[in-house]
Automatic annotation (TrEMBL):
This is Uncharacterized protein. It comes from the Bacteria.
Length: 100
């Protein structure tokens, strides 16, 4: 799913599990659609277990902390898995290519 927050000129893309929890999230900002987040819940959990969650979060951002059923004021557009992947892959590569 995706939604647009016009106050920040940011597109949010979400992959959610069957219970509505965000498992991957992408945020693209401004007219250039600059990736500012490409976070994976599983990756964050591994980073937490390995003791480097802060490093992971500072590089890739975080995922939403509530299931989508609890969000207020959002009317997300549904996407296919393929449409999400078309956004995830390039956003992730651009963030990974940034210098630390």
């Amino acid at each position: 799913m995706r939604c647009y927050w016009d106050e920040e000129d940011t597109w949010f893309y979400f992959e959610v599990d069957v219970d509505g929890w965000v498992i991957r999230q992408v945020e693209l900002a401004g007219p250039e659609l600059t990736p500012i987040t490409a976070a994976s819940l599983a990756e964050r959990q591994r980073a937490r277990d390995e003791g480097h969650l802060d490093e992971c979060d500072s590089r890739f951002g975080t995922t939403a902390e509530l299931p989508v059923s609890e969000w207020e004021g959002h009317d997300p557009e549904q996407l296919t898995a393929e449409e999400f992947e078309e956004v995830w892959g390039p956003a992730r590569r651009r963030i990974e290519a940034r210098p630390d």
